[in-house]
Amino acid sequence: MYKERAYRSWTGGPDLVAFGVMEGQTDLAVYAETDLSGQARAAVLTYRRDLEDYIKSDPAFYSALEPVTVGDHAPQIVRAMASAAQKAGVGPMAAVAGAFAEFVGRDLCRLSGEVIVENGGDIFIRTAKTRTVGIYAGELSPFTGKLAMEVGPAEDGMGVCTSSGTVSHSLSFGSSDAIVIISKDAALADAAATAAGNVIRSPDDIAKGVDVARSIEGVLGVVAIAKDKMGSWGDIRFV
User: Fold this and answer.
1) Domains defined for the chain, CATH in brackets
2) Is the whole-model pTM more than 0.70?
3) Closest by alpha carbon to 100, among 187, 17, 35, 193?
4) pLDDT-based confidence at residue 93 (cuts at 50, 70, 90)
């Protein structure tokens, strides 16, 4: 059953056109200079087909909880997920939402100077100006609605991805309310958020989660939230 994602009201901006794309498990909120819903849907269908066809030929790619090796013949999005998972030390599907956000977003960047693609809390953003991204850590978190970050300008694009052991439907072995990772690679940001979240079982583990994130090559910043505690590192600008 579809569940309304209330935090989506925090995304985008009045200067951009908002539209959505839903296909299977893929549910994107997209913002661009014009309505590119047709092009976005076409991109989603292409990348879903690439991923689904690859999984049919290599089912272990879908179920693996550790990094796996894929060949040069694999589709680009599969190789991106495998590379991100290798750097973060997790299974490749931990990078799927961030990878879809980025691949669809970069396709749309050919048609729009500014693009934001949000996929279940994982964001690809290319912007010529500074924008604000709110942090959602669950309805009961004291940080939800009170904590946000400045992101950009990011003319080459970047990823802002969130994992949660208490809010998200994604697999996590931890109990963090939110792990937010900033990276130039959205697939990597998604995988790193999972890796950091896996080690946080209580607020006392926040420092451990931050250390995991900062040890991953390509991570530029991290925010970790568990109950009423928070830790951060790197290029994070709170507002």
Assistant:
1) 20-234 (3.10.520.10)
2) yes
3) 187
4) very high
